[in-house]
Amino acid sequence: MSSVLRDTPFSVLDRSRVREGADGPAALRETVALAREAETLGYHRFWVSEHHGVPGVAGSAPTVLAAAVAAATSRIRVGTGGVMLPNHRPMVVAEQFGVLEALYPGRIDMGLGRSVGFTGAVREALGQGREAAEGFEEQVGELLDWFEGGPAAYPGVHAWPAEGLRPAPFVLATGSGADLAARLGLPLVVGGPRGEDALLRAVERYRSAFRPSVWAARPYVVLSGTVAVAATPERARRLLVSEAWSAAWSRTHGEFPPLAPYAAVAGREMTAQERERFEQAMGGHIHGTPEQVEAELAGLLSRSGADEFLVTTSAYDRAELLESYRLLAALLR
Questions:
Q1: pTM over 0.90
Q2: What is the CATH superfamily name and number for domain 3-231+288-331?
Q3: CB 247 within 8 A of CB 46
Q4: Which residues contact 50 (CB under 8 A, 6 or more apart)?
Q5: Hey, is 83 helix, strand or coil?
Q6: C-alpha to C-alpha distances, 122 to 48, 83, 125, nearest whole angstrom
Q7: CA–CA separation, 158 and 145 (whole Å)
Q8: What tens digit of pLDDT does each residue of 50-80 get?
Q9: Residue 223 and residue 311 in contact, taking contact as beta carbons nearer than 8 Å
Q10: Which of 115, 137, 202, 284 is the most buried (most CB within 10 A)?
């Protein structure tokens, strides 16, 4: 057993993916059920995500879903991966996390991202254009100020019950996100292992430029990525197929669909463009037998010095997905 795996907390991010033949409510219930399973298996955190107007994703209100997850569990940390701050007023986000932290003290994580809507129509419906992401650093700063007594721009205004509470903030790195997290003194969540050289450079910049804050005394790096574990390499690879096809379809047709069964994807006649996108989406993930996954994860964690790993796997077959999480958890004991 690798000591680096045993000494590294592993967590779960679930995107509430809709499966063909089911619906959004079923996906949300499955997310809550997976959270209970993750707690039983000893995972450190369970996060949910924010997507709007996406047929294949039911998780549109992460703080609401996080409340359901926290209510259904008792020990595991619960949070968002993340709330897309450009879509919201910082005061409202502070109030939401204040309520969560008040109800579930010491268990709430506040993962923050800068993405805006998937399409122009969705962005218009949300009332935010692409330019909204440009103010992300100021939005994060204002959000944190609400926990400290309120921004100077709004004298006498307080965000109750958030003021004085401490949900744990994280910055999801996209673009210059690592530099922003360093300037603000916040923990960093960064995607890996795809593009590992760029990943390692971003992590090094973050650590070298980190400024301690009331929120974090030292740099803290969470790597995120897909991990699929099965009895054979082929079965592990099959777990990746449904999500990869959904990603390929979104990039060629502009719509992110529900997850299709493996057999439906494997038997499909793809266009050249679809095949290219599909193969791209199949790459850059950690998958294989327990021994193969253990070796690959140990190498990545050693090279990066990451403090934590956030598993983001989606699959059509829920039973096989749960088994993958069980096999991975066995490597961590």
A1: yes
A2: Luciferase-like domain (3.20.20.30)
A3: no
A4: 59, 60, 61, 62, 80, 82, 83, 84, 87, 113
A5: strand
A6: 20, 16, 5
A7: 10
A8: 999 888 999 999 999 999 999 999 999 999 9
A9: no
A10: 202
